[in-house]
Design goal:
By secondary structure, this protein is mostly helical. Helices cover 51% and strands 5% of the residues. The chain is built from six helices and four strands; from the N terminus they run αβααββαααβ. The strands form two sheets. It has a two-stranded antiparallel sheet with strand order 1-2. A two-stranded antiparallel ribbon has the order 3-4.
Length: 297
């Protein structure tokens, strides 16, 4: 009996140690999992805290003629509005679409809108003084992490969260450099392939037939931009055909039709600018031709 008791106590000690080891291991695993969960939450929080940052424009403008000041101010305010809307879209679209959703549905359309607005600023100044060059380099925006929020586009020092490098956007967007598409009165009515399984194509109002008489000195530039409208439509129809089933119910509007409208608006602005350079006025109402829609193929 005197030898049995120590053996019994030893077994109790060993059993207690084993249970204690299992408990410690469980605590360690739980802590590790909690750490991983915390890291995931931190990552999600960081993603949610991202904002869109754009180069400041006002500080890059020359002296603005008094006659153009009001129009320039309106367009600078519009740049702020566009940025605020894009940041709102970013904050409410977490988890939508595929890996290129933010670029295709938010940053790309924002760059197109900004380019169109910057063109209008240049046009308004150019009517009364030397037209500023290089503003299109300020169209591109980027994502920046942090809670600084959207900065003002009218400030000279860049926007909160870090401004995008103008050199990254110095060249015209690749999807607006194409050309060579056939020009014609009905060229923009349809075209491209049908959406996969949908039997739909994108149809746009015809711009060429609404332009009327073009100043001889502006004809080449107008022709280039008319051809560019067709190229943009062809690319949008190709995107429609290759993206069947992607994204949510608003994918086509957000990722294809919306960006196409912005590109067309910018191109139509360039057509109007080519008229103004020659002292002529483009036909009114061309801006209304920027929007496109789906049509059954």
């Amino acid at each position: 009996m005197s030898r049995g008791l120590p053996l019994f106590h030893r077994r109790r000690i060993l059993l207690s140690g084993a249970i204690g080891g299992i408990t410690c291991a469980a605590v360690a695993v739980g802590a590790a999992m909690a750490g991983q969960d915390g890291g995931g939450d931190a990552s999600a929080s960081t993603k949610a805290a991202s904002t869109i940052s754009c180069p400041a424009v006002a500080g890059s403008l020359p002296e603005i003629p008094a006659e153009a000041q009001a129009e320039v101010d309106r367009n600078l305010a519009l740049l702020d509005t566009q940025l605020a809307e894009a940041n709102k879209r970013l904050s409410t679209s977490q988890g939508e679409g595929g890996p290129n959703f933010v670029q295709n549905a938010i940053l790309g359309p924002l760059a197109d809108k900004r380019k169109s607005t910057l063109d209008r600023i240049a046009i308004s100044i150019g009517r009364h003084a030397e037209k500023p060059a290089g503003l299109e380099a300020l169209a591109e925006c980027t994502l920046s992490d942090g809670g600084a929020g959207a900065g003002s586009d009218t400030g000279a020092g860049g926007e909160a969260g870090g401004a995008a490098s103008p050199t990254a956007a110095a060249s015209q967007p690749a999807d607006e450099q194409g050309g060579g598409a056939d020009q014609g009165g009905g060229a923009e009515q349809g075209g491209g392939g049908a959406g996969a399984g949908s039997g739909q194509t994108i149809s746009c109002p015809d711009v060429a037939s609404e332009i009327g008489d073009v100043p001889a000195a502006a004809q080449a530039e107008v022709d280039r931009n008319i051809a560019l409208l067709q190229t943009q439509l062809d690319e949008a129809n190709k995107r429609l055909a290759s993206s069947a089933g992607e994204g949510g119910p608003n994918f086509v509007q957000n990722a294809i039709l919306g960006p196409l409208k912005d590109k067309r608006a910018s191109t139509i602005d360039r057509i109007e600018l080519s008229f103004s350079r020659q002292g002529s006025t483009a036909p009114s109402g061309l801006d209304a031709l920027a929007g496109c829609s789906l049509a059954s193929g």
